């Protein structure tokens, strides 16, 4: 390597830690504005050669059967994620190398990837805007804090992100779930259309097609979805949004972005005299060398818990409890949407045959917009905030048909018309849900690991009890038979929507960052990911994380220009 | 979308890749190693099941999923795949499986004085009719007792069905034609009045 090409011998305008949904956007936005950026990614690069969305299960040794395969031994936590399979487990972290601790009786499942693109390689793609019912939730019900921004502040940045990412969906005119700039919506099945109409008629509730970061027409050089249905295993036509093939590629194409893979950031370096960050120290995953890279700004996009871990590990004499922790709130207010409850049944009035395996498959479902505790409606007596449902209805092959023999084979093929809905509930920000550094635990690179302490509380329990009953009630109103409901709250982490731990706010005493994700305590360090969330809403959060990142980057660009 | 269209679309957008150049044909129809071929080798021998257990599993699986106008479980090597999977499963799961398999011999011996695999077709059908549906045994002056056969049947049927419908034969049974899933989404195109109790069909602009 020539001296001038060595990233360690020069200083950048910005270091971006992480190459996923927000890291990709930060790199794109800053480099397209002319800034020099280096992106540090803890994992390896990814190649489209690894994509397996068209590989039939029988070509796998164990066909992804439960519990089979030695690879599961290194990923006992990651295999709790539906998307971590025999096809793609190598994208997920090796749990033995990436430990964390939890208190006795308080399990937390931390499901994550370390690879260029991070979780955008196999995310759920559901993309919803928050509304002022979320941003100003505390004013609505008195719990917690309002965000320092309103929907109007973020709306232009939602527009920018949606225009680029490509979100297929349908406008509904429901203020609880603001409409966006949508590509043509995917079609609902007959059962879903029936369900949507029944819900509107019986309850006045909004059921819409899932708003998904899957493009339904050619968009910025990417082809429309070819409907193979297995997005979590990659996409040869890049039809779902994934940062390596969109934002990050754009950044690299500017010639102003350097991507360093296998670079595991340990902490932020600060100058005690100026109280400014000077760069970051990271471990080279290939050589195990400790290296330091310099920049004028440090932008953490490592995922909420990883970004906060880096800040906590960046304690110095001046910042004894971690960088940006003068409020004592760094690590506090951990949230993850509560999931687990819902209802399922059959719609026997529909007799369609299942789509053949070589036929089209829609990697999307329907969405029932939150209807509890809205501004217009009554307040529920048992819980605050609310939940949305994701679900689907359609004919599926029925391996669970009774009996045996030729009749059983025929029944499998005839299929069954199922409908199911599952709730995603708001997770209240509580300061007793937190992450801290475990003084006795380090990862495989010697970096102190996290202690994660979180439980869902009584509000989440009551909310999911209601969601189960309400889900069953809605299915019954749609004429469903053999309805089964489940009322439970899954282990925290199961939604894979970790949020909070470096909340934004206007008051440095009650928040960690300002409304532009800048640490109150160190003005050239930013936490631009889910860490800055004040409350969780009940909507899938990635779209909001990206919009917040673009807003914060645009303000940073203005500062550089001045 | 047919194969040609899928390839063309992929070629159109392949320039978007940030990383490595890969032959598009290999991406669209990536096959890699086909593990199912390993199961078809002539000198196959079980690595977990005993010869008798293997034979019992072949007979049971073929009874549950027989040859019709499409292959049955035996031709799909359901026994061979399950033997492979069982060899790496936790001990308690292995024990549950072989325990349920053994029950079929126990039940068969009690009624017909011979192992399940040795039953005539008629006897096997009778026996399966007994175990394939939930029921209870109630004897005069005895308390109600659950009949264990259905539980054993259900456990093994789940494994057998999972193995069959993930095999090449099972894929074809579910409409797999050798190419990746493709085509335009088949959503609701009905007119409003065609859905009972519905006031409207699909929305304008949906694709």
Polypeptide structure, described:
The complex is a heterodimer of chains A (562) and B (207). With 562 residues, chain A is of the alpha/beta class. Helices cover 21% and strands 19% of the residues of chain A. Chain A has 10 helices and 17 strands. In chain A, helix 4 (151-165) crosses helix 10 (542-561). The two termini of chain A are 34 Å apart. With 207 residues, chain B is an all-alpha fold. Helix content of chain B is 48%, strand content 2%. Chain B contains 9 helices and 2 strands, in the order αααααααββαα. Chain B has helices at residues 3-13, 24-28, 35-39, 51-64, 78-86, 91-112, 121-131, 149-165, 168-173; strands at 136-137, 145-146. In chain B, strands 1-2 form a two-stranded antiparallel ribbon. Chain B is globular.
User: How much is the average pLDDT of chain B?
Assistant: 82
Distance between the termini of chain A: 34 Å
Helix content of chain A: 10-25%
Shape of chain A: globular
Strand content of chain B: under 5%
Poorly predicted sequence stretches spanning 5 or more consecutive residues of chain B? 1-31
List SSEs of chain A in N-to-C order. EHEHHHEEHEHEEEEHEEEHEEEHEEH
Estimated structural class of chain A: alpha/beta
How would a crystallographer describe the biggest sheet of chain A? 7 strands, mixed
Order of helices and strands of chain B: HHHHHHHEEHH
> Helix/strand/pairing class of chain B, anyone?
mainly alpha
Walk across the major sheet of chain B and give the strand order.
Answer: 1-2
Give the chain pair forming the largest contact, with residue counts.
Answer: A-B, 81 and 83 residues
Shape label of chain B: globular
Radius of gyration of chain B: 24 Å
Average of the residue pLDDT scores of chain A: 96
Helix content of chain B: 40-55%
């Amino acid at each position: 390597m020539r001296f001038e090409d060595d990233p360690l011998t020069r200083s950048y305008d910005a270091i971006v830690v992480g190459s996923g949904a927000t890291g990709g956007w930060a790199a794109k936005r800053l480099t397209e504005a002319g800034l020099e950026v280096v992106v540090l990614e803890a994992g390896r690069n990814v190649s489209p050669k690894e994509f397996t969305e068209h590989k039939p299960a029988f070509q796998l040794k164990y066909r992804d059967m439960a519990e089979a395969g030695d690879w599961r031994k290194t990923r006992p936590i990651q295999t709790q994620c539906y998307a971590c399979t025999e096809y793609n487990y190598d994208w997920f972290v090796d749990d033995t190398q990436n430990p964390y601790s939890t208190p006795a009786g308080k399990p937390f499942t931390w499901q994550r990837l370390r690879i260029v693109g991070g979780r955008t390689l196999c995310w759920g793609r559901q993309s919803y805007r928050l509304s002022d019912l979320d941003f100003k939730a505390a004013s609505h019900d008195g719990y917690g804090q309002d965000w320092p921004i309103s929907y109007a502040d973020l709306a232009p940045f939602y527009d920018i992100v949606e225009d680029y990412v490509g979100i297929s969906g349908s406008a509904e005119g429901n203020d609880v779930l603001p409409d966006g700039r949508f590509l043509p919506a995917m079609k609902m099945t007959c059962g879903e259309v029936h369900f949507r109409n029944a819900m509107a008629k019986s309850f006045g509730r909004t059921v819409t097609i899932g708003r998904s970061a899957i493009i339904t027409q050619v968009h910025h050089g990417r082809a429309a979805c070819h409907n193979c249905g297995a997005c979590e295993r990659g996409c040869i036509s890049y039809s779902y949004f994934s940062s390596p093939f969109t934002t990050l590629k754009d950044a690299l194409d500017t010639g102003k972005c350097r991507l360093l893979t296998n670079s595991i950031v340990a902490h932020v370096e600060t100058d005690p005299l100026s109280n400014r960050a000077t760069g970051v120290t990271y471990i080279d995953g290939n050589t195990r060398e400790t290296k330091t890279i310099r920049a004028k700004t440090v932008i953490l996009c490592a995922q909420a818990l990883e970004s906060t871990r880096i800040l906590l590990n960046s304690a110095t004499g001046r910042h004894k409890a971690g960088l940006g922790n003068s409020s004592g709130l760094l690590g506090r207010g951990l949230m993850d949407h509560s999931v687990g409850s819902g209802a399922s049944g059959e719609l026997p009035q529909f007799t369609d045959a299942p789509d053949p395996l070589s036929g089209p498959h829609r990697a999307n479902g329907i969405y029932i917009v939150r209807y509890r505790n809205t501004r217009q409606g009554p307040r529920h007596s048992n819980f605050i905030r609310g939940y949305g449902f994701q679900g689907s209805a359609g004919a599926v092959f029925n391996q669970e048909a009774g009996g045996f023999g030729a009749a059983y084979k025929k029944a499998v093929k005839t299929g069954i018309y199922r409908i199911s809905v599952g709730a995603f509930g708001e997770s209240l920000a509580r300061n007793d849900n937190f992450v801290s550094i475990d003084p006795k635990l380090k990862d495989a690179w010697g970096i102190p690991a996290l202690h994660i302490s979180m439980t869902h509380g009584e509000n989440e329990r009551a909310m999911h009890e209601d969601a189960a009953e309400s889900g069953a009630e809605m299915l019954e109103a749609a004429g469903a038979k053999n309805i089964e409901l489940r009322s439970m709250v899954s282990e925290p982490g199961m939604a894979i929507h970790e949020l909070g731990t470096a909340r934004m706010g206007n008051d440095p005493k009650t928040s960690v960052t300002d409304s532009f994700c800048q640490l109150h305590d160190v003005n050239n360090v930013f936490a631009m990911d889910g860490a800055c969330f004040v409350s969780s809403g009940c909507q899938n959060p990635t779209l909001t994380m990206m919009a917040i990142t673009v807003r914060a980057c645009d303000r940073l660009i203005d500062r550089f220009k001045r | 979308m047919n194969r040609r269209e899928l390839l063309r679309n992929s070629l159109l957008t392949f320039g978007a890749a940030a990383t490595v150049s890969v032959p598009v044909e290999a991406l669209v129809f990536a096959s890699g190693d086909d593990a199912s071929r390993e199961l078809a080798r002539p000198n196959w021998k079980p690595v977990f099941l005993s010869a008798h257990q293997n034979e019992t599993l072949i007979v049971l699986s073929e009874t549950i999923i027989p040859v019709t106008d499409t292959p049955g479980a035996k031709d799909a090597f359901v026994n061979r795949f399950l033997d492979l999977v069982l060899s790496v499963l936790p001990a308690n799961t292995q024990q549950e499986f072989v325990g349920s398999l053994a029950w079929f011999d126990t039940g068969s011996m009690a009624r017909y004085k011979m192992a399940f695999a040795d039953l005539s077709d008629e006897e096997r059908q009778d026996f399966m009719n007994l175990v394939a549906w939930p029921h209870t045994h109630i004897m005069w002056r005895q308390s109600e007792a659950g009949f264990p056969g259905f539980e054993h049947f259900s456990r093994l049927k789940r494994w057998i069905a999972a193995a069959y419908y993930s095999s090449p034969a099972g894929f074809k049974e579910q409409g797999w034609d050798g190419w990746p899933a493709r085509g335009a989404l088949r959503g609701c195109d009905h007119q409003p009045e065609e859905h009972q109790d519905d006031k409207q069909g699909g929305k304008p602009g949906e694709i």
